[in-house]
Specification:
The chain has helices at 15-27, 53-63, 78-94, 108-118, 134-143, 169-174; strands spanning 6-10, 31-40, 45-46, 67-72, 97-101, 124-126, 147-153, 188-194, 204-212, 215-222. It has 227 residues and is of the alpha/beta class.
């Protein structure tokens, strides 16, 4: 029997990448060997989501996967980001990785960008959640036992008061009309603390909410408790 292709998951620390990982593992066709995350070095936080690196590490432990971190500066011009990612892709290829799993849902331009950046490499992109209706997917996430929190909100698209809230059935009911229930258009980003893809919960507590560079961030802090 041929060996399964080795894959890494593009890991944002949020719900979509978590469910993409879950689907990739459940499908059984890929050997998921690592998580790949972009970290803003000066803040020691997951880029865009603003999640503390310590929580990222705890997620990786709960998922039983090593972390591969692409460290970028702040601010980070696109060419700097692309150089850093290209170097990481070359390293992944050298280690035998031939697939990269993404949690994208329906934004064609984002998918095409990822495909174009990998086209000249030996790594193929995989999109396990692509084109799934997001209202249905959101309910599936909540019903699965997912525990996630909104850590970043774009106040131009979603009221600030949603920052820090748990991603649950009540939140889905209260989302304003026109907001994608999975936040696929950038309305919000999440951090996952538990779910079917985890071996154990990552304990967190909700900290302060601040506005920075036009976005609203809620800081999640590691907690010593358990589920």
């Amino acid at each position: 029997m041929p060996a399964r292709p080795k894959a890494v998951v593009s890991w944002s620390s949020g719900k979509d990448s978590a469910f993409a990982l879950w689907e990739a593992r459940r499908g059984g066709e890929l050997d998921v060997v690592a998580l790949l995350t972009t970290v803003t070095d000066s803040f020691a936080r997951v880029s865009m989501h603003g999640v503390r690196e310590e929580l990222l590490e705890r997620q990786a432990t709960a998922l039983g996967l090593p972390l591969r971190r692409v460290r970028i500066p702040h601010p980070c011009p696109n060419e700097t980001y692309e150089r850093a990612m290209a170097a990481e892709v070359r390293s992944l290829e050298a280690s035998g990785v031939s697939r990269m799993v993404f949690g994208d849902l329906f934004l064609r331009d984002i998918r095409e960008y990822r495909e174009s950046r990998l086209a000249s490499t030996g790594i193929r992109p995989v999109f396990p959640l692509w084109d799934r209706p997001t209202a249905e997917l959101a309910r599936t996430m909540v019903d699965s036992g997912l525990e996630a929190y909104l850590v970043c909100v774009d106040p131009r698209l979603l009221p600030r008061r949603f920052a820090g809230r748990r991603y649950d059935a009540r939140l889905l009911e209260e989302l304003p009309e026109g907001v994608d229930p999975c936040g696929e258009r950038g309305e919000f980003h999440t951090f996952v603390a538990d779910g079917p893809m985890f071996s154990h919960r990552v304990p967190v507590e909700v900290g302060e909410t601040v506005e920075r560079e036009g976005f609203v961030f809620t800081d999640l802090k590691p907690s010593g408790g358990s589920a």
